[in-house]
Amino acid sequence: MNLIVDVGNTLIKMAVFDNGKIISYRKIPNAEFSKSVKSIFSEYFLIQNAIVSNVGGIGHEEIAMLCVFCKVHVLSHTSKTPFKNSYATPQTLGVDRIALATAAFYHNPKGNTLVIDAGTCVTYDAINDYGEYLGGAISPGIGMRYKAMHEHTSKLPLLKKKGIMDFIGNTTETSMHSGVINGICNEIDGTIEQYRSRFVDLTVILTGGDAQFLSKRLKNTIFAHSKFLLLGLYHLLEYNKR
């Protein structure tokens, strides 16, 4: 069994894999990491290996605690990857994007793939049919767009995401909702079209916390997979065992 740990800015996703399948999944606040690790190993004592993708939500002490229970691979730019990395600055490539690129490589090994991760930021990551990671783009996510309008103006309120009835807002709040939701959907649809103009038979995968919310609002046909990054981490763990 393998333990997969994806540490975000505020939440941690933890999954137990057995023979390539998720048999346990939980999402917890960062502060509950140690408690959850103990709980998982008391239930799944056959776990022998773990991988941690950490964007800064936990420190060395938490990782050292995990090492007490099993072998731990902390994902970094020095980790082995199954794809060719053509990113100009591989040392700055986020571990989350490495995991998404790996998941794309295994999901569509001989095709062109664009992975869109709609989380705190929206990231775009492309792998071509030669198994080469090309890079992509990073833009503000839904929550960040609402927060930016509130914090960088004197009167605009802080809103939570909400579906829009019409792209023409007739109040300040509906105008803000239209700007964020309509804007991000047009961005994603437009970006997909840019990639499709360059790559033949492009497979598009949408993942991340806002994937389900956005998928039904996009014009393009996409494959939504909420646990795509976890699959990439599983493959990376197996690949780095060799």
TrEMBL record:
GO terms for biological process: coenzyme A biosynthetic process. InterPro entries: ATPase_NBD, Type_III_PanK. Keywords: ATP-binding, Coenzyme A biosynthesis, Cytoplasm, Kinase, Metal-binding, Nucleotide-binding, Potassium, Transferase. It holds the Pfam family Pan_kinase. GO terms for molecular function: ATP binding; metal ion binding; pantothenate kinase activity. Pathway: Cofactor biosynthesis; coenzyme A biosynthesis; CoA from (R)-pantothenate: step 1/5. Belongs to the type III pantothenate kinase family. This is Type III pantothenate kinase.
